[in-house]
Amino acid sequence: MNEHLPPIMTHIADRLKTIQDTLATLNAEDVRLIAVSKTQPVSIIQQALDLGLRHFGENRIQESYEKWPNLKDRYPDVKLHLIGHLQSNKVKEAVQLFDVIHTLDSKRLIEKLAPEAAQQHKNLDCFIQINTGEEPQKSGILPTEADEFIEWAKDFSPYLKIIGLMVIPPAQEPPSLHFGLLRTIAQRHNLSCLSMGMSDDYPLAIQLGATHIRLGTVLFGARL
Ligand SMILES: *Cc1c(COP(=O)(O)O)cnc(C)c1O
User: Fold this and answer.
1) For residues 52 and 38, what is the distance between their CA atoms, to the nearest angstrom?
2) Which of 77, 108, 123, 182 could form a disulfide with 167 if both were Cys (CB 3.0 to 4.6 A apart)?
């Protein structure tokens, strides 16, 4: 069926088909698939674009600038999602290139990001990252501080629309508790979006309410 495509593209096409079949089985065709293209070269991203994917996730500003400005010119309907920690000295570049920020994780960051978004007249959809595992090495708001933080952030700026919460569960724990906790916190604040679920656990995340899944390996294969 795909014999006219180069072999690696067939792989991505096959993997995408498997993911889409899984989403269909879960009645989850509406769940937003974010193709996590960090470390992937433009040639691979091009293949995902050719397959119709338009939502991409990157975690580093510098790398994103090496890959995306040209692609975004050629594909104006691409939406770029920042899924890695944003340093407050890179907010200008982030606002220029990204459409959705999944990693709001401090008041300081929001206080820098909001005036920059206003300056650039750019509305950003945002998630607040919650550190449900209370891991010291991980970014995100602690669950005990989440309620106060979310209410503060929601009213901070019309340019930063807080649409939901994001989590990266601890690697060594069953993710279901973390997905459940994220959902509980979001419901308390009437936030409708949940960015949760990666290659190893996205069907479970969907069953627990994910609206945005972030898939790298299961779509592109192992990262280089
Ligand atoms: C790399 C990354 C992903 C994708 O991980 P896979 O296991 O390859 O699907 C998702 N979310 C975040 C925040 C990441 O950094």
Assistant:
1) 18
2) 182
| Ligand 1: residue whose CA is nearest its atom 13 | 83
d(CA 112, CA 32): 28
3 burial type by CB count under 10 A (0-12 exposed, 13-18 middle, 19+ buried): exposed
Statement: residue 7 has pLDDT above 70: no
Residue 38 confidence (pLDDT) above 60: yes
Mutate to test the pocket of ligand 1, among 34, 214, 217 (most ligand atoms within 8 A of CB): 214
E-only strand ranges, 29-120: 32-36, 55-58, 79-82, 100-104
With 60 as the cut, is the pLDDT of residue 2 above it?
A: no
Candidate of 40, 58, 83 to mutate for ligand 1, largest count of ligand atoms within 8 Å of Cβ: 83
CA distance 209 to 224: 31
pLDDT of residue 91 exceeding 70: yes
- Does residue 222 surpass a pLDDT of 60? yes
Contact assessment for residue 44 and residue 9, using Cβ atoms and an 8 Å cutoff: no
Distance separating the N- and C-terminal Cα atoms of the chain: 28
Residue 73: strand, helix, or coil = helix
Helices 42-50 and 7-25 pack at an angle, to 10 degrees, of: 50
Largest CA distance in the chain: 55
pTM of the model: 0.95
Whether 160 contacts 177, CB under 8 Å: no
